[in-house]
Protein: DUF7352 domain-containing protein
Amino acid sequence: MKTIHKFRLAAGKEPTTLTLREGFRVVRCEYLMPQKAVFLWVQQPLNVSTPLVDRHFRVAMSGEPVPDSFEYLDTALDPFGPEAYHVFEVPEEEMHAAPEEYVEEGEKAPLERTGWRAAQYVF
Structure:
């Protein structure tokens, strides 16, 4: 047997860690207005002997850079606003990486070179 559970994902730079049954599958992602949060629906086995695994999920706004290793899962839209929330699964090895490891040597401020930083203050 299997079931579907709903999980709230925290907004921000820190990933949300969920303990799920091995063989789980993400089936839906949605922004719920009453809670003003992104939720993930996950199908997983009901068998209690199925091993548990920790998985990490990160919500990123449109235009926000994430490492290439993050796996895109789905997008949740705010039906009454311009926001779009993109959900990524974060690989285990990324959970232990220092933020500097995401940036190659000599690339300490790639967004500043593109003018993005200056543009963010205009709006």
